[in-house]
Specification:
about 20% strand; four-stranded antiparallel β-sheet; alpha/beta; TIM Barrel; 16 strands; about 325 residues; eight-stranded parallel β-barrel; globular
Length: about 325
């Protein structure tokens, strides 16, 4: 691939200029500063990193076990373990400033007031480009309930926008019967982008002990098993967006370049990568190379031109 092709997969999401459309999913890359420890890691192939969820107060997370492998996927029940927003802002954010990618903070809370306070603190950091509102985690109370009610989602997004000068991205839950109505509420509240979506609630039982494998009984399913569901939800949300032109970041099941192209054809402007990194720390570089090869094979010059171009039967 020639040098003048280097930026053919660059995208701009909610005003954030990214080298590639690839976004590391929250919870899969820690708080970002850990990544340079990976030998030969190509940061330039990562458009942005969504940091591990942070809450107002420290959280110890759920009791073990927290991870269970499943066919074509992984169940997790971490429970948003984190040291609290003040600690993260003071000690973690400064370590991000010299890293060659963009960082998005993922925030959660058990009430609108908690979300607003966390957003206010994070908005003061110049290391963070945007805030992702996690209203869809299946492993904690509070935020997920907000994510299934259009009125609550509207109120939360509006409240955070009022105190935050940074772009606000809303992480939608797939655990609803009508994801379009939630998306429409967030758009009405002036969200800058939508993340579609999160893990699906699942359960694994040890047949010998007859007890759930996870200490919290239930967990969130991620991995290749959920990709077709992500494609479907992305397309539904794309239809809900209409003329608003709000970008979608697709999260769920992407493991290779073909998967990434699929969700972009469905309507995503950027592509989340998460579970796949657990078995291949360099997956983003492989996907980025694959996207460039796809553009060449299709005689396309800009990855943004393929967004939403699926041809329905």
């Amino acid at each position: 691939m020639t040098e003048n092709k280097k930026n053919d997969i660059a995208v701009t999401i909610a005003g954030i200029e990214m080298n590639t459309p690839l976004v590391m999913a929250s919870g899969t890359f820690g708080y970002g500063f850990e990544v340079p420890r990976v030998a030969d890691f190509r940061f330039e192939d990562v458009g942005a990193v969504v940091l591990k969820s942070v809450t107002l107060k420290p959280r110890t997370g759920n009791k073990p076990h927290r991870i269970a492998e499943t066919p074509a996927g992984v169940l997790n029940s971490i429970g948003m373990q984190n040291p609290g927003v003040e600690y993260v802002a003071k000690y973690y954010f400064p370590m991000l400033k010299n890293l060659p990618t963009k960082f998005i903070a993922n925030i959660a809370g058990e009430s609108t007031d908690e979300y607003v306070e966390v957003a206010r603190i994070i908005a003061e950091s110049d290391a963070i480009e945007a805030i992702e509102l996690n209203i869809s985690c299946p492993n904690v109370k509070g935020g997920c309930a907000i994510g299934v009610n259009p009125q609550d989602a509207f109120a939360l997004v509006s409240a955070v926008k009022a105190v935050c000068g940074k772009p606000v991205i809303v992480k939608l839950t797939p655990g609803v019967t009508d994801i379009k109505s939630i998306a429409e509420s967030c758009i009405a509240a002036k969200a800058d982008a939508l993340s579609v979506g999160n893990t699906y609630t699942g359960m694994v039982i040890d047949t010998h002990t007859r007890r759930p494998v996870l200490g919290n009984n239930y967990g969130g399913l991620s991995g290749p098993a959920i990709r077709p569901l992500t494609v479907c939800n992305v397309h539904k949300v794309r239809q809900a967006i209409g003329d608003s032109a709000i970008p979608i970041i697709a999260f769920g099941g992407v493991s290779n370049a073909s998967d990434a192209v699929e969700v972009m054809l469905a309507g995503a402007s950027a592509v989340g990568v998460g579970t796949a990194v657990f078995t291949n720390a360099h997956i983003c570089s492989e996907i980025a190379d694959g996207l460039r090869a796809y553009l060449q094979s299709q005689n396309e010059t800009n990855i943004a031109d393929i967004v939403g171009t699926v041809k329905l039967n």
